[in-house]
Structures are given as C-alpha cells and as structure tokens.
Amino acid sequence: MEPGKRVGWNSLPQMMLELAVRRQDKAMLRHWHDKAWRRVTWAEFGRRVAAVAAGLRAAGVAAGDRVLLVSENRPEFIIADTALMAIGAVTVPTYTTNLAADHAHILRDSGARAAIVSGTALAKRVLDGAAQAGGIDLLVGIDPPPEAPGLRTLRWAELEATPGDLDMLRAEAEQIPPGRLACLIYTSGTGGAPKGVMLPHRAMLSNRAGVAQLADRLHFEGECYLSFLPLSHSYEHTVGGFLLPSLGVEVVYSRGADRIAAEFQEVKPAVVTAVPRLFEVLRARILAGVEKEGGVKEKLFHRAVALGLRKLDGPPLGLFEKLQDALLDRLVREKVRQRFGGRLLAMVSGGARLDPDLSGFFLALGLPVIQGYGQTEAGPVISVNLPWNNDRTTVGPPLPGVEARIAEDGELCVRGELVMDGYWNQPEATAKAIIDGWLHTGDIAEMVDGRIRITDRKRDFIKTLGGDMVSPAKLEALLMAEPEIAQAVVAGEGQPGIVALLVPADGMAAKAGEAVARVNAKLATIERIRKTATVPPFTVENGQLTPTMKVKRRAVLTAHAAVVDGLHAKG
Question: Which of 221, 216, 262 is nearest to 32 (CA)?
Fold first, then answer.
C-alpha cells in the first residue's frame, strides 16, 4: 500500500519517520534562506529528527517533560516538534507574538522547564517570562541564544551534531500508544486566560484520516502548500505540520504577510489556508486595483463578478449570458487566477466565520474558496466544505469519523477520536466542556442537509434592554465586509440598542458612516446600529487581537468602556 494512504499509524512521529524512510529524496519542506528558496527532503528531515532527538535526550529531556517551542515557521520547528514527540516529551507550541507575561503564564501552568527558541529577541522574552514563572533548566537557541548566566544553554547546531540512530528511533516511535499526550496547545484567549488543551496523537491522526478520505479527489500529491498561519496555532500545527506533508504535499513557509502576494506567483501553491481577515485584505487590494484602472476594464470585472454570482446563486444564465460569461472567464477571471499562481485547488478559510458575500466574491472569480470549521479542543478540524460540493453559507459536513449534534439550547456538540483529553490542570473546565464523550463547542449552530451552519458564539449573544437577542458575530461580519471598515465590535448588553466601535480602513474614515448605513439597510430594526465611534486599531500588541487575527471582544470593550458608555448615553 502507498505509504501516504496508510491509516494504521499510532502516533505522529511513527508516521513522519516511516515516510522519511520511504520517500527519501522527495521534497518535504521549502523555506527562504540566504536569499533563495531551500528544500528539505524527507531523508534529510529524518536524519535531523534522529540527531535532535538524541541531542535532547543527552541534554536531559525525558518522556513526559513539557518543552516550550517558540519559533516562526521554519524547518527547525517541525523537526524539533517531531523529535520531542518521538522521545515521549510533550511539545508546548507558543506564539512568537507572546509577551513575557504570556510566556510566564504558560510556563507556570504547563510546568515546562525547557524551551527551544529561535532568535535572540524571542529568547529574551521567554527568559523574562521564565524569571516571572520561577525559571527554566534548559534553553536551546535555534539561532545563537543570548547570554544567560546560571542557565544551561545549547545551540541548535549542537543538537544536530549529535549522532542519531533513525532506525532505533523509528522502532521506539512504533511503540507510542495513540492515547499518549502529544502536545499542549494553549487557546488563543479571546475570553480569559489561555487554557492548555491536551491533544493526544489519536486526535490529530483522526483529523488526518478524515481529510485523507476527502483529499484523494483533489490529487494533492506533488503539489505545494503555502504555509501562512503560525505553526504554533492548532490548525497549522496539525494541517501544515503533519497532515498535508503526510499526503505528499510540499510545505512552503511564507516569508510573511507583506510577501504573500508575490509568493503566490513564485510558489504557485495548490493549497492555501488563511483566516477571514486575509480574504478581506485580498479583496480590498483587488478592488483598489480595478478602481485604479477604471473604464472598460472595471466594468468587465464587475460584470464577471455579477455573472459568477448568478452561476452560484441563480437564476440560471441565459444563452447570451453564458457566451458573455465564457468570454469574461478568459478576459477577467483567468488573470485573477494567475495572480494567485494559477494552480489553486483549495483556498481554505478557518478560525472565524467567513461572510458568504466575501467568499462569494472569490468564488465568482473562479477561485476555490472553501470554509472549514474547528477548534483547538478537536484536533482541531471538525468539518470542511469541498470544492466540488461547496455551500458557502455553511462550514461543511463533519469529517468522516466525526459525530455532530445540536443540543437543546442550540449548541453544537461533537464526538469522536478527535476530541481532546481535556484542559491541563483544569478538571472543572474539562467536565463542563466534555459531557458523556461529547465536546460542547460553545458555538450555536444548526444542521442544514448534513452540513454545519454556525450562527454565533453561545456566550456572546447580546440581550438588549427590551429582551431582544442580537448576534454580534453577524453584525461585526457585515460591518467588516464593507471596504471602508477594517475592524468592528458591537455592544448593547442591557441597553436600548446597539452601538459600534469602528476601525476604518486606510483613508476611509470619512466614508465609514455610509458603510454603516448600508449595513443597517440589511438588518431588522432591533439589530440596527444606532451610534458609532472610531477607535485605534485592535492589535496583538495592545491585547485586543489574538495572534491568529481574531478580535478579543471583551478586551476591546473593556479598553473602550468609556467610549461605549458615551455612545449609549447619547441614545
């Protein structure tokens, strides 16, 4: 049986090390180094994992130890990750954007006494956090670590120079049980302090098995995946770190948001995953370019979008419109597809709700945007649409092997091998989240023809003074779908009506009111936004945005409480 099709692996390192032997000279990873793209083959990956595993053991890292892993996306991340799991240690992937206080919380909570860090600046932040948390015993610097008197430090090169035995490590990895804890991934903390989600190997392998059944028809093998989300995020950790490579897809690590448009042209990816914010930015750039060209080209573009939406939503095109659409496909859509590399098979959106109008824009231009759904506590992939069977108003059907049901209060619950073991050191929170084997997601949803449609977060409904229940997710998505508005948070709990905090798009502050008026025209009276105020951008640095670009509603409302109170006072 082709190794990429095998479903009998018990652990992630067993899978990865077996593939390293079987695939040998095939490309696994690509990264930018010394002003050029560099490839890592499967054979090189296997050799380096074996060496690093031996080096970590020699440094005193043992089975069960939690080890912080703080690095941008680069080969050393997944090499360290696999090596740690192979020797029975527990990886604790952590965002590079974390502040010292964030590291202190995770070190204190997880009990990690060792850290693998790339870069001096990141290492200093980890060390500052470690000082607050009571210290660590070992620091490994992927790039040379800073001076840290009294602390044992190692250079990554020392680990890789350790003699390793790949065959012995493979034999050891075969004995890892599926239920062993593989990693602790801390939730991004939109509501309170991050909790450590305990993910065993079976959870992520369940994701892999479910997606593998769907991926056969896409013929991913030998294609490229442009990795944009941080590997410390649960989605990228599972999908970009293990799942797609195991399916024969070469992972290419992006150089960052400012380079991604050029990288579409350079890499020509078949697969991309992103959060809705990236799609908003891409649409804004496309529309700005079209407006700049103006004239006939602008009219043809908008006609292509209009006819594309007709094909998606109806009514069916007439004969003349079909001929017109075929011409516009060559004149307009093909040029847009080439801007994205021309080889895209799937552009997957996750992490937050993707507005159907936003996904419809790309689909109308012939780009295969599909929406999936998941959460860290579920491996993290729960459901996904498919390019040939796409419903942009839903997040798709559950993966094979995943059971889903809607509780009496509307909450989505899921069950299967993908469900976490629980929250680290939080039995009460675990008992609330997992009841009789069912993970309570905290999302309000409905099932539509076997697909999941997410309508809101259970805890985020706004109850107005009149007793009406209003969905903030719906209003915020509509606001941010307007080109004049970059970010938005609405409020109104216990108040007569809804108000909004807005971050206008660049140069669009004067037109934000027009955008709000357009949104209000789509809303019921009780949902309409009565007053607005412009506030500074929500960022990771000011604590109002998670590292994966999700807005921390509570943090925003707390930071701007006086502004919100003033809006309500104005009536």
Answer: 262
Q: What is the CATH number of the domain that holds 8?
A: 3.40.50.12780
pLDDT in tens, 58-112: 999 999 999 999 999 999 999 999 999 999 999 999 999 888 999 999 999 999 9
pLDDT for 1: 34
Q: Which residues pair with 374 in a beta bridge?
A: 381
Query: Do 310 and 407 fall into the same domain?
Result: yes
- DSSP structure string for 440-496: EEEEEEEEETTEEEEEEEGGG-EE-TTS-EE-HHHHHHHHHTSTTEEEEEEE-TTSS
Q: Are residues 76 and 137 in the same domain?
A: yes
Same domain, 306 and 399: yes
Residues 44 and 100 in one domain: yes
Average pLDDT over residues 514-523: 93
Helix, strand, coil % in the chain, rounded to nearest 5: 45, 25, 35
For residue 123, the enclosing domain spans 3-186+230-257
Digit-coded pLDDT (tens) for 9-51:
999 999 999 999 999 999 999 999 999 999 999 999 999 999 9
How many structural domains are present in the chain?
3
Confidence (pLDDT) at 406:
97
Please enumerate in sequence order all residues whose Cβ is within 8 A of that of 450, keeping only pairs 6 or more positions apart, or say none: 397
Q: How far apart are CA 544 and CA 278, in angstroms?
A: 18
Domain boundary among 434, 457, 480: 457
